Structures are given as C-alpha cells and as structure tokens.
Amino acid sequence: MDLTRGDMERVNQLILSKAGSDVQMIPEVANHLISSGGKRLRPMLTLASAVLFGYKGEGHVKLATSVEFMHTATLLHDDVVDESDLRRGKSTARMIWGNQASVLVGDFLLGQSFKMMVEVGSLEALDVLATAASVIAEGEVLQLSVAKNMETTEDDYLSVIRAKTAALFAAAAEVGPIIANADKAGRSAMRSYGMNLGYAFQLVDDALDYGGTAADLGKNVGDDFREGKITLPVILAYRRGTETERAFWKTAIEQGESSEENLEKALGLIKKYDALNDTIGRALHYGTIARDALAPLPASPLKSAMLEVIDFSIQRVN
Amino acid sequence: MDLTRGDMERVNQLILSKAGSDVQMIPEVANHLISSGGKRLRPMLTLASAVLFGYKGEGHVKLATSVEFMHTATLLHDDVVDESDLRRGKSTARMIWGNQASVLVGDFLLGQSFKMMVEVGSLEALDVLATAASVIAEGEVLQLSVAKNMETTEDDYLSVIRAKTAALFAAAAEVGPIIANADKAGRSAMRSYGMNLGYAFQLVDDALDYGGTAADLGKNVGDDFREGKITLPVILAYRRGTETERAFWKTAIEQGESSEENLEKALGLIKKYDALNDTIGRALHYGTIARDALAPLPASPLKSAMLEVIDFSIQRVN
Lengths: 318, 318
Hints:
Chain A is mainly alpha-helical. In chain A, 75% of the residues lie in helices and 1% in strands. Chains A, B: Supplies octaprenyl diphosphate, the precursor for the side chain of the isoprenoid quinones ubiquinone and menaquinone.
C-alpha cells in the first residue's frame, strides 16, 4: 500500500528501536523474526485506518508498532506451543535460542507493546487492544483443546480463527478511527472490515498450506498436516468422506501418522471433495463482507487501496 | 495485614471471576496456581498504598488483581522456562497440563490484567505497570543469559532480582498513591518502599532455599541448586572459596552435577563462608531502606502494618 509508505518506514524504525535492550539476547531473538519478511499487514491496517479518518498526529505509528509487536509475541509463543521448526522458511527462534528465550522475548515485546499504547494515551484504543490480547490467548487455548480432534466442526474452527487471527485484524483497524475521533459508525465500519479481512486471510492461509508452493508461502505444503493441525480443508474433506476415509484422517491427524505418502493421500482427498475450492469460497464470503463494511465511506485513493488489500489477501491462492 | 482484609476479599473474588473463561482449560490451569496458597503480598501492597493515601474508589481492587495476575502469568512462564516440577509444594501447571497450556494461560492472564488496568482508567498507573511488565521480562532474559555461569557477580545478580522481583513490588506500591492523586513525594516514597522490600523479599527467598524447611517454603531445600540457579548464597560462597572449592561449584552448577551428596557439600561451603547470614545481612540493608522510605509519612495503623511487612518478609528465615 503505497499510500502509507512513509508512515510504514517510521513503523519499521520504531520496531527496531523498541525491540532494543541492553540484554543482548532480546534484540537478537526479536530481530530474527521481525526481519524475516512478514507482510506487516496488521500495522498497515492501523496506519491506513487512522489516515482514512483524517488523523494528523503521531500516535498511529506507535499503535501500528504495538500491533506488530503483539503479533510477533504471539508468533514466538505459537512456535513454542506448536513445537515448530520453521517459520517463513527460516529456523524458528526456539530452534536457535531455545523455548525459554522465545517465551521471555515474547513477554518482553508484549510489555513494550503496552508501553507504546500507553504513550499514545487513548484509553479506548488501549481497551480495544488489551481485549484483543486476551481474546487471542483464549483462542490459542481453545485451539489447544480442539487439537488433533477430528470431530472439530466448522463452527469450532471459525471460533478459533476469529480469536487467533480476526480479533487482532479487527483491533488493528478499529484503533485508527478511535484516535482520529471518528464517530461510532466509522469505528464499526473499520472493525468489521478488519474482522472479516482477518477471517478471509486465515482461511486462505490454511488453503495455501495444502496448495501453495514453498516460495509463495514461506513454508512447505503440508506443514499443518505434519503438525496435526485441524484446518478447514481437512474438516471439509473429513466430514464429506466415507467411513474408510475418515478412519484415514483419524490415523493421520490424531495419531500423527503424517508420512509423505499419507500427505499425498490427504491432498488427494482434499481434491476429491473440492475442499480447497470451498475453503476459498468461504474466504470470498468474508471478503465480501469486509468490502461492504467500507461501502458507506466516501471514495478515496486510500479506500480503494484498502479494498485492494482484500483482493490481494484472497488472490494469494490460485 | 488485617487492615486491608475486606478489600483483599474482593480481590480474591475478582481473581476468580477474571480467570474465568468459556474455554474450560483456562480456569482450571489458572486456579490451580491461584489457589495454591501464594502470600498475595503484591496485591496487598497496592491496596494498602492506595488506602494509605486516602483513596476512596474501587480502582485499587482492580489494580491489585491486575498485579496478582501479572505475577501469576510470570510464574506460569517461569515454570516453563525453568522446567520446574514443583511450585509451592504442588505439581506445576506444566506438569499437569503441559508447557503449551502454561504459556497460553499466562498470556491470557496478562491480557486480562491489562484489561482491568484500562478499566481503572489511570494512564499513569498503566504506564507504571506496563513498564514493570517489560522490565520483568527483560530481567528473565538477563537471568537466562547469566544462567549456570559461576562468574556472575553480585551486581549482575542484583540487576536480575531488581528486574524480576523488585520492579513489580515497586509498581504495586506506586500505583496506590497514583490513583489516590498523591503528590510526587508520596509516589516516590511508595515506589522506594516497594522496590527495596522486593529486594529484601527475594534475597530472603534465595537464602531460604539453602536453609529453610520444605513446610515453610512450599519447596525443598536445594531446589535452586538442583536447577543450577545462581543466587547470592552461591555467589558469595564461590567468590570466597579456594581454587578447589570453585572447581566444585563449577561442576555442580555449570555441569549440573547436583546429587544429594553435592548438595550436602554445597551447604557445607555456604556455612563455612557464612554466605547465608551475609545474604540475610543484605536483605536487612534493603529492609532498612524500605523502612526509611516510609519515614516522612505520618504515623498510622496502616503505616505500622506496612513496616511490619518488612519485618515479616525478612524474619521468615531464622
């Protein structure tokens, strides 16, 4: 999004400076993940939504950085929880510095994130972001308790991605109009845009895991399968399958028999039941809601750019 | 502290309610630790320091609960980082529900903690507590990077306990006068009281690990030794020791040869060099500073009670 490029430069600088510490291990661990080429979609939402409502101050750069730190902290903790070896095609921090450093540096970034929010001084923005922090953690625990359970329903799955992904997208977009002192309708519009974009984004991510290539993805096809993660492509293929096919999924996901041979078989079943296309179909549904959330706002180059973000998020998969 | 008993009851109720969630695992994990008989010294500091400065509202109960949640979150993460099996004489949450749940429920409590602070609405209190959250995490990383290194100096160690313990005591005591709109001198007095009490408390804890009995302590003599933790009794005994004794400490702590026989030997060296008494001596030093921090304040039953907390914290060890 070219329109926020200048602000984004300042976010990048603030990220580096606030991840700094006299304790040398902190910037090492933090920068490993921060510099690994994330899309920075969440902070961009905060910048764009503030500017869209005419915000003139400096607070949006701090809030955008806070949002990115919350996200980074979550990734550091997630990799520990999921015992992941790779993230965005690089070794995870926990593989290099250990689980301990990943947990603690995540905590540090969360603390820095809240400090920056406090500096901005908007209690409403603080409320939105602190609530998101709780909801994200709650969603991760929920994911843990449905993990490796093939009876997980599409509704359960949607609850998980609402909490672990959509809630932060929603908060990132909502704090823009808040600090710009926009009216309630403006806040609701941006919250809805963010929330539904978040759903679409996560659904596409989950589809890519069974269909993209490692270069696009920064991860390999089948990573979710190998970790026994239950995502929508798997849920759909399982629920639409025969008795024998369901038994296969149980063995593969619940008992962790995730050989390459089984991955091939899983990909075959996902294709057989059109589960990837239907996952993208769901993403398109949320994308449409996100688009309509912006409908009442007057046309502007920034609004157009935010609409393009929806298309970009969905068209990553082909 | 009888004088805050009514408020403390309400903190206990709020703890239970804010640790609640529809995700069943969250209250299970949280309450396991919360109900394990911690002293609740930190929230008591917040309650007492608010009332001492004439605070009449409800915010101190929420802030006290926030402080206890920050502490609980830290303990959950600490047990993961230290790979601890026991805490306060009970199995740690990670032994029952796994590291994953401990990390995530800790994150949830941190989120809930910030939400409650935001509800109170004091940006100054938020600033103090958010800063403490960063400093605590920074201190834990520092502790990680000095771990099992026998060349750790007393100054390094003091930096660690300042960050991981004293900073939260200081913040807990400082937010009281802040929400009571006390003047700067009042804030500084309570911050200094909390900070120095925190140092004294941690030093005594570290001494107890080589001298108390399991019943007092909720842990066993030698736990720190078995985990290879470097605390002041060890630092003093090492630095005062002969070449041969230093070689022993290196083997025991750095190479983890922490047999019962080696623990006996370590206890003997600590006694030989009076390292336990001198650790308590350091605690008394900080206790005196904490006492003097309160000196300018007018006499009151609450002030007397806060002075007694210093004595109580130090006299746990005998």
